[in-house]
Amino acid sequence: MLLVPSIGLVVAGDVAYNGVHQYLLESAGGGLEAWLNAIDQVAALRPRAVVAGHKNKDLPDDPDILEQTRDYLLDAQRLLTGQPSPREFYDQMLDRYPDRLNLGPLWYGALGLLG
Asked: Considering only CA atoms, which of 44, 53, 54, 50 is closest in space to residue 62?
């Protein structure tokens, strides 16, 4: 992460995603919790702009992407606890986030975490 305090800018790297399905494959074993903690740390900086490491280039670098990233992770976490099949997880996440780009990470994350 890079912080430029004078202009309220955070370049968040992999902490924040913007309009793109998140890479969950390596999130087992406490990874989701660590990711949520990292989001909290960035949000505590009260940035005026957040540049995501993975983004839809047509979307603004709004700090709201931190909450959007958090919501996605929390939804994934809730679904994973139910031990759905990879296809069920994929379909449920796609139903919740139909407009996000890059379906590949959603599918191989589902396979890797649940397959």
From this structure: 50
Amino acid sitting at position 115? G
Closest CA to 23 of 110, 98, 92, 83: 110
Closest CA to 47 of 14, 6, 15, 8: 8
How many helices (DSSP H) and strands (DSSP E) are in the chain? 4, 3
Provide the pLDDT for residue 52: 98
Short-list 52, 53, 62, CA closest to 8: 62
* Other Cβ atoms within 10 Å of 42 Cβ, number: 21
Q: Which segments of 1-115 does DSSP mark as H helices, in order?
A: 31-44, 65-81, 86-96, 103-114
Span 7-16, pLDDT tens digits: 999 999 999 9
45, 50, 53, 59 alpha-carbon torsion, rounded to 10°: 160
